């Protein structure tokens, strides 16, 4: 365990991607099977335990520490597992430090009743770094800046294998991955992916604004455009098992199998292939807002009433597998033709084609992006989040390659609001005041007051964050536990320009409105709070949005 | 009598009312008592300053000989009348060279203002001495139970391991230029590091001062800009902010190390861009804060700059009267900043 904890520790401080890969590869080279397989499982987030849960850690540490001191410490450290690792009052017992494999197997096998004692024993045997690593494994979020993809890249680097090749066989290999290592190191055959309907990592787009002078750099004729729908990116896959039965599955963009939540969609997957698309709610042929889709998500039980009131739908963007043929290496134009043919063969209203948006030059496309209703999206234009631009000759590549795909989002809504409360962030931004509650003006009984309308956690650069943090510390007028109330008078305070994607009516917010994806777009050091926006402005936006 | 009759807070900091003297004032005052030479505690422009001779020399070095109209050096243990029937004396705080706790005695009541202090051994300054008192005003920079500093020599060993592992790279250690840097140098010598230690320009003056006072730092050399590329395998000390500067990039594949108590917390270490965090602190950790509070025998505890709430909570559990002092100017603003914002921030 110490060797693995040291690896996690080094990774967590190593900013360079290539150095991270080298650290992991060194580990995989030095550490024998099956121990290294357990490390790979941990690094790829493939471990989950039935009984060992974050809650168990919380009660273990709660039994041993003062709750108030723990809360203060957690607030400062910004991470529960790390706080527990640092605060753990060690009882010196046997100093045998178990290997990672023994810990993982122990976490799997130990009964729920015995587990707390077992974990406590390990925590006593480990040092701060070891305890931190163990708790990270149990809580399932390593947060060491090394993704599953990076770990697989490190494995690939052991032999002359492309990282994408690892992705392809990944669904067919299991802990402790001895066959995978054997193949990569040239000692064994390529593992078979035996899943009839496996997930394939999706291709993602970069924001077009991140490409300098893109209007000159990119040629319109090289690209196809389509609407970017405001739903949930999914992969709808169906394939035949060895007995010839069709196995349909619906995956989220992270590869989570969400089939059970969408029986209505699953029933329509009566083809062999893999479609990349957007999950939407359609009523009478019209795409509903994301707000409506949210009513359908995260429900524990799926009732017929739910599927009738919130009928799920797939709007298809791309085709990865046609029949049993992997067509990802083909250019977009060929995949698109195959997709159109498949959709018409399926002939099920639950799955339709996301239309392409024809354009001759960038100004024409910009006009359609500005006004999707007349640009072709018609009555569904409210559900358009922007445009996707895809190179016609590009193959389907997992990950977020720069160049073939761009997203060009619609301009967000903006409001100037006043900072009212600030709270420390988590993770990378812990100890900075990085979570802000902001408000707009309203008149109550002849008096102007600020009413909170939202909370934002992102959008600032590190420098801006540091500057707001200083502002918060210097202008605190009240403290409520971890929350600080900040001066917010007409002539004293800080105005934040907040961008957001949409507005919903809300009964949970005192203001009656809720913002979607609010983030800080600019800090108006120049603007006095009295010039910030009023609630009437938001209400007008809301009327427009729901009209 | 009440402790508040002797000591109160003003807009300039903590004030001994009967004597009309401020302790570590944050703005210019007539009469000041200074605990130690760090710039948030020792400022220029007061009418009269009373402090240890070492602290006065540090202030003169930093601000020029005319940093105050009148200086009164007070040796550790020496008792002086400061007016209003108050007697003051200074006692080693173990924080940096010359650092002191201040004992005020008035009508049989004893109050100790700790200033910044630590209990761990430091070859560059006199060790902390607990002073029995009725009121103990303690700092709490690391006043949370997550802060248990490991022995500093273990952290230095970690640094030397890394130097051995990466002989082709320079190791740059971000450390506050007064106190921390010289302590790290002395610890390196104790650990057997015999090569010259290289210094960023901002460290040279104070380090030469330490050497002139007899600190065991061995051979030090200022970094010459054009020779940075040749400093592979060497140890270089610089202010924490220099780690992010262009200055640091001219070294061969530099390893950014940082010596600070904040390095115990990962998010802090990362915010500072530390690749090799060294948990070396010049402040008492959680266990030592508790131990010190008990050793003074004080019945009343005031807690300042840092995580006041946690230590106040613990004191209450021990049956002690305790309250937080939200002193502005250092305290929270300087003691618990978002690091990476400046040198003072990583001074702890």
TrEMBL record, chain A:
GO molecular function list: DNA ligase (ATP) activity
Catalytic activity: ATP + (deoxyribonucleotide)n-3'-hydroxyl + 5'-phospho-(deoxyribonucleotide)m = (deoxyribonucleotide)n+m + AMP + diphosphate
Pfam family, one: DNA_ligase_A_M
Keyword Plastid set for record: no
UniProtKB keywords: ATP-binding, Cell cycle, Cell division, DNA damage, DNA recombination, DNA repair, DNA replication, Ligase, Magnesium, Metal-binding, Nucleotide-binding
Location of the ATP-dependent DNA ligase family profile domain: 305-442
EC number: 6.5.1.1
Top EC class, one word: ligase
PANTHER family linked: DNA LIGASE 1/3 FAMILY MEMBER, DNA LIGASE-RELATED
Protein known as: DNA ligase (ATP)
Organism in which the protein naturally occurs: Terrihabitans rhizophilus
Taxonomy of the source species: Bacteria, Pseudomonadati, Pseudomonadota, Alphaproteobacteria, Hyphomicrobiales
From TrEMBL, chain B:
Coiled-coil features, chain-numbered ranges: none
Key word Ion transport present: no
Molecular function per GO: exonuclease activity; ligase activity
The UniProt record lists the keyword Ligase: yes
Residue span, Metallo-beta-lactamase domain: 27-161
A Pfam family recorded for this sequence: Lactamase_B
Keywords: Exonuclease, Hydrolase, Ligase, Nuclease
SUPFAM superfamilies, sorted: Metallo-hydrolase/oxidoreductase (SSF56281)
Known EC number: 3.1.-.-
Name this polypeptide is given: Ligase-associated DNA damage response exonuclease
Source organism of the structure: Terrihabitans rhizophilus
């Amino acid at each position: 365990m110490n060797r693995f904890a040291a690896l996690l520790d080094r990774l967590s401080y190593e900013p360079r991607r290539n150095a991270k890969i080298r650290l992991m590869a060194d580990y995989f080279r030095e550490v024998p099977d099956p121990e290294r397989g357990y490390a790979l499982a941990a690094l790829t987030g493939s471990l989950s335990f039935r009984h060992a849960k974050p809650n168990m850690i919380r009660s273990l540490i709660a039994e041993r520490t003062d709750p108030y001191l723990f809360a203060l410490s957690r607030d400062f450290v910004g991470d529960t597992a790390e706080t527990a690792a640092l605060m753990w009052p060690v009882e010196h017992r046997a100093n045998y430090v178990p290997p990672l494999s023994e810990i993982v197997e122990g976490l799997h096998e130990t009964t729920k009743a015995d587990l707390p004692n077992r974990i406590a024993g390990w925590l006593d045997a480990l040092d701060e770094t070891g305890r931190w690593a163990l708790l990270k494994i149990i809580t399932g979020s390593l947060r060491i800046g090394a993704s599953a993809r990076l770990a697989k890249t490190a494995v690939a680097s052991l032999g002359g294998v492309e990282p994408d090749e690892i992705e392809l066989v990944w669904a067919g290999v299991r802990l402790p991955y001895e066959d995978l290592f054997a193949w990569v190191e040239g000692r064994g055959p390529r593992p078979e992916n035996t899943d009839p309907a496996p997930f394939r990592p999706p291709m993602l787009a970069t924001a077009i604004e991140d490409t300098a002078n893109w209007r000159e750099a990119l040629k319109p004729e090289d690209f196809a455009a389509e609407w970017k729908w405001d739903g949930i990116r999914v992969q709808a896959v169906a394939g035949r098992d060895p007995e010839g039965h069709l196995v349909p599955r619906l995956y989220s963009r992270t590869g989570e199998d969400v089939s059970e939540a969408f029986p209505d969609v699953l029933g329509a997957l009566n083809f062999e292939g893999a479609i990349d698309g957007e999950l939407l709610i359609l009523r009478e042929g019209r795409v509903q807002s994301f707000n409506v889709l949210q009513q359908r998500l995260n429900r524990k039980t799926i009732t017929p009433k739910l599927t009738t009131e919130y009928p799920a739908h797939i709007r298809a963007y791309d085709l990865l597998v046609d029949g049993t043929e992997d067509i990802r290496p083909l250019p977009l134009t060929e995949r698109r033709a195959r997709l159109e043919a498949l959709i018409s063969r399926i002939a099920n209203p639950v799955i339709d084609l996301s239309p392409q948006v024809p354009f001759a030059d960038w100004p024409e496309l910009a006009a359609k992006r500005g006004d999707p209703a007349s640009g072709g999206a018609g009555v569904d234009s409210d559900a358009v989040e922007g445009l996707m631009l895809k190179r016609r000759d590009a193959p389907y590549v997992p990950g977020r390659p720069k160049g073939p795909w761009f997203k060009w989002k619609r301009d967000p809504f903006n409001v100037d609001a006043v900072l009212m409360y600030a709270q420390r962030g988590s993770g990378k931004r812990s100890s900075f005041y990085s979570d802000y509650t902001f408000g707009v003006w309203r008149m109550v009984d002849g008096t102007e007051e600020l009413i909170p309308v939202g909370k934002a956690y992102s959008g600032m650069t590190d420098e801006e964050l540091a500057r707001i943090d200083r502002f918060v510390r210097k202008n605190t007028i009240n403290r409520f536990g971890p929350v600080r109330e900040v001066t917010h008078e007409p002539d004293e305070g800080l105005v934040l320009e907040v961008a957001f994607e949409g507005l919903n009516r809300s009964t949970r917010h005192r203001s009656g409105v809720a913002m979607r994806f609010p983030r800080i777009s600019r800090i108006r050091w120049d603007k006095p709070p009295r010039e910030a926006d009023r609630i009437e402005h938001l209400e007008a936006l809301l009327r427009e949005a729901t009209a | 009598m009440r402790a508040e009759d002797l000591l109160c807070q003003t807009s300039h900091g903590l004030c001994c009312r009967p004597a009309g003297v401020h302790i570590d004032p944050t703005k210019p005052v007539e009469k000041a008592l200074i605990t130690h030479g760090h710039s948030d505690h020792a400022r220029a422009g007061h009418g009269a300053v009373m402090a240890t001779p070492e602290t006065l020399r540090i202030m003169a070095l930093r601000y020029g000989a005319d940093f105050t109209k009148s200086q009164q050096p007070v040796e550790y243990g020496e008792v002086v009348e400061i007016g209003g029937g108050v007697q003051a004396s200074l006692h080693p705080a173990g924080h940096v060279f010359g650092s002191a706790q201040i004992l005020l005695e008035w009508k049989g009541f004893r109050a100790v203002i700790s200033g910044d202090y630590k209990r761990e051994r430091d070859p560059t300054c006199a060790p902390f001495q607990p002073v029995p008192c009725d009121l103990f005003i303690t700092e709490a920079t690391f006043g949370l139970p997550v802060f248990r500093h490991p022995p500093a020599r273990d952290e230095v060993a970690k640094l030397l391991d890394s130097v051995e592992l990466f002989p082709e790279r320079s190791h740059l250690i971000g450390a506050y230029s007064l106190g921390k840097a010289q302590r790290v140098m002395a610890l390196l010598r104790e650990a057997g590091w015999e090569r010259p230690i290289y210094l960023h320009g901002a460290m040279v003056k104070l380090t030469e001062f330490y050497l002139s006072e007899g600190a065991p730092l061995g051979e030090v050399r200022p970094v010459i800009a054009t020779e940075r590329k040749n400093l592979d395998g060497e140890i270089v000390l610089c202010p924490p902010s220099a780690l992010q500067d262009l200055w640091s990039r001219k070294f061969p594949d530099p390893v950014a190390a940082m010596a600070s108590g904040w390095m115990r917390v990962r998010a802090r270490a990362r915010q500072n861009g530390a690749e090799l965090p060294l948990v070396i602190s010049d402040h008492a950790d959680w266990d030592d804060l508790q131990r010190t509070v008990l050793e003074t025998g004080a019945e009343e505890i005031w807690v300042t700059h840092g995580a006041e709430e946690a230590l106040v909570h613990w004191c209450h559990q021990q049956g002690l009267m305790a309250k937080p002092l939200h002193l502005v100017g250092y305290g929270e603003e300087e003691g618990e900043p978002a690091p990476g914002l400046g040198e003072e921030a990583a001074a702890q």
